[in-house]
Design a protein that fits this description.
heterodimer; A: 218 residues; alpha/beta; 5 helices; 12 strands; B: 247 residues; TIM Barrel
Chain lengths: 218, 247
């Protein structure tokens, strides 16, 4: 079972639907303690980084302490970095290094009303993969996925997919059990479903390796 | 490179696609879910449901249509028509819409844009502008206002809109081409994406609105129903003319 963490940041219907399409079972835990029985954890998110404030210390500890695969989506990716300019006083989990910043396209000196870089960055953009990863396995260079965001994470050693929109940013990251995507795989057609299926495979392998994880965590 | 989006619009009344559609050869004629499935296969980038159901049960009927279409696609889904309040928007989003499109309600109560942007994020809020000779009209083009399209687009952006859906009333349904002058004026005035609508008739019209019209996306309803003008064919055409699209 995959825990889809609902902290009130928008609608989870499309994430649920996409996970159902790849045969994954999902539930929404109501208290952090329930994460102990998760085989995988997804932190979704649309909208404002400030919404992650709802992830209290108890949630942070439970998410960080779980030994199972973790996937951040959109603001969920940003939250796995150290923080964001969008809400400077709200700390991220810091599992990936660096802080998220407004897309460079929208720095005042770059603002051109007729220019090509509008913010938010909305639409289908192409991915580049600097190195192989489990998350992006089978996704070809130049494959397009759906983005909608104004802030983005910097490149780091854990970056496994990049996107260029007035500057290159981390489109996907992976380190150990932690994965994250800035785009919306649940709205990215077959490419997105492939990425979610890759992650679900990690969840399945992890639960097979650690059949006692559930009992241990409880 | 960010692709120019091709968006299919489903005009729905009482659960059936109604506007400007050549149903010939479609087994499930008029069924929004069947059309969505076909568009998805053909490579559409996004779908907009424009629900004009005018009954007391409109919200429930709309939710049913949204659920049926959302079940068919893993693409962004926007819903407009009859989104009059925060409750209407919440019901549409709850049913599976990623974005809601506000038109008359935003003109009457501009603060609704901000309310929804705060609750769901700007990316979930489209402000639809129906314009005739650069002037904004409300109530499906029936009621003139004192606003110009450019001023209203700027204000909507400031209030938290994430995208503008700009329809030329003059061109709508004529298949004579998008209003590139209007689209460029609005697109250049705001720093959020502008979706051009009204007038699509040929592949060349799309190329025009993406180049001289500075549109970020283009929406059409009936054109895609003709077999010789498939979404895939349009994208190939645009790609050959160096317009970035998702293929």
């Amino acid at each position: 079972m995959i825990a889809l963490v609902d902290y009130g940041a928008g609608n989870l219907a499309s994430v649920r639907k996409a996970l159902a399409a790849i045969g994954a079972q999902v539930w929404t835990p109501s208290v952090p303690g329930e994460l102990g029985r998760a085989h995988g954890i997804i932190v979704p998110g649309v909208g404002h980084f400030d919404a992650t404030r709802a992830l209290t210390d108890e949630w942070r500890a439970a998410i960080q302490g779980a030994a199972v695969p973790l996937l951040g989506i959109c603001v969920g990716l940003q939250w796995l970095f150290e923080g964001s300019e969008e809400a400077p006083d709200v700390p991220g989990l810091g599992l990936f290094p660096g802080r998220c910043a407004l897309l460079s396209a929208s720095r005042p000196q770059d603002l051109k009303t007729s220019g090509p870089f509008k913010v938010p960055h909305v639409g289908w953009n192409s991915l580049s993969m600097p190195r192989p990863s489990r998350l992006m396995a089978g996704v070809t260079e130049g494959a397009q996925v759906y983005f909608t965001h104004s802030y983005a994470a910097p490149l780091c050693d854990d970056t496994v997919a990049t996107c260029d929109y007035g500057g290159v940013f981390t489109a996907a990251a992976e380190r150990g059990r932690v994965s994250a995507v800035q785009f919306h795989p649940e709205k990215s057609g077959d490419v997105g479903l492939r990425i979610l299926a890759n992650w679900a495979t990690l969840v399945r392998r992890s639960s097979e390796r650690q059949p006692g994880a559930e009992a241990d965590a409880l | 490179m960010l692709s120019k989006r091709i968006i299919a619009c489903l005009d729905v009344r009482d659960g059936t696609v109604v506007k400007g559609v050549n149903f010939e050869g479609l087994r499930d004629a008029g069924d929004p879910a069947a059309l969505a499935r076909r568009y998805n296969t053909e490579g559409i980038d996004e779908i907009v449901i424009l629900d004009v159901t005018a009954t007391a049960e409109a919200r429930q009927a709309r939710a049913h249509t949204i659920q049926a279409v959302a079940a068919e696609i893993f693409l962004p889904l926007a819903v407009g028509g009859g989104i009059r309040s925060e409750e209407d928007a919440a019901a549409a989003i709850e049913a599976g819409a990623d974005k809601v499109s506000l038109n008359t309600a935003a003109l009457e109560r501009p603060e609704l844009i901000t309310t929804l942007a705060k609750r769901y994020g700007s990316q979930a809020v489209i402000v639809a502008i129906d314009a005739k000779a650069f002037r904004v009209f409300a109530r499906s083009g029936q009621a003139g206002t004192t606003r110009t399209a450019v001023e209203w687009a700027r204000e909507a952006t400031d209030r938290g809109a994430g995208e503008i859906l700009l329809t030329s009333i003059d061109r709508d349904g004529t298949k004579t081409g998008f209003d590139c002058e209007l689209t460029a004026a609005v697109s250049d005035a705001v720093n959020i994406p502008v979706i051009a609508s009204g007038g699509a008739g040929t592949f060349a019209h799309f190329a025009d609105v993406f180049t001289t019209g500075h549109a970020d996306a283009a929406l059409a309803a009936s054109i895609f129903h003709f077999k010789e003008q498939s979404v895939a064919g349009l994208k190939t055409y645009l790609s050959e003319r160096n317009v970035p699209v998702r293929i």
